[in-house]
Design brief:
Helix content is 46%, strand content 11%. The protein has 214 residues and is an alpha/beta fold.
Length: 214
């Protein structure tokens, strides 16, 4: 959904600080974040803002708004599942490295998509991640992964992950709502990622557009 003014300013300020040449957002909805952050990327001297959106109707809205806002040279909308879009952009040579990534899509896919980006060397030391909704409604698997030690991640990577994630137990009603709206989303739980990467985790409190604290 829309990030709203408060969270939007937090990420826009982060863009100004990081000055990414390439920024990727997972989950574009109807374009609020793409316009706000795409403009911030351009002002920071960046070259490309990829907005990955599964829903083709939402994607068409984002592309139209980016064109109207004069951001079509910066904002590129990619339609399809986040994992498929990441792999396609990488194989085409369109995406070689991610400087800043904003995660605001299907919550169970946060961790698997991050691991995919690690596996493809798109996320490397120096990459900055900004993940929405990790406290409310919550995303325990993602927080556990980015806060884990190298030793713990190596141990998990060597374990048998073929049974997959129990999406229902981890994410409850939010997973059901997404499935009803967008359809089934397959999560690849066998990806190992790069367990040698260490993330510095920082929690930033903010507000939803409704004014509800998160």
């Amino acid at each position: 959904m829309n990030v709203g003014a408060d969270k939007g300013k937090i990420v826009a300020d982060l863009v100004a600080e990081v000055k990414p040449q390439v920024m990727v957002e997972l989950g574009g909805y109807i374009g609020y974040s793409a316009l706000l952050f795409g403009d911030a990327v351009r002002k920071a001297g960046g070259k490309r803002y990829f907005s990955l959106e599964r829903n083709p109707e939402f994607g068409a809205v984002i592309a139209s708004l980016a064109d109207l806002a004069g951001l079509s040279d910066i904002v590129k909308v990619v339609i399809g599942s986040s994992a498929d879009s990441i792999k396609r952009l990488h194989s085409q040579g369109s995406l070689e490295h991610i400087d800043l990534m904003f995660l605001d899509h299907y919550k169970p896919a946060y961790t698997s998509d991050l691991k995919l980006c690690e596996h493809l060397n798109l996320v490397t030391p120096g990459t900055v991640l900004a993940a929405d909704n990790v406290i409310k409604p919550g995303n325990p698997p993602y927080l556990e992964y980015v806060r884990s030690s190298v030793e713990k991640k190596r141990k998990a990577a060597s374990a048998d992950m073929s049974n997959g994630m129990d999406v229902k137990s981890e994410f409850g009603r939010n997973a059901d709502m997404y499935k009803e709206r967008e359809g089934e989303e397959k999560i690849n739980t066998e990806l190992k990622g790069n367990p040698n990467l260490v993330y510095e985790s920082k929690l930033v409190n903010s507000y939803e557009p409704t004014g509800e604290p998160v």
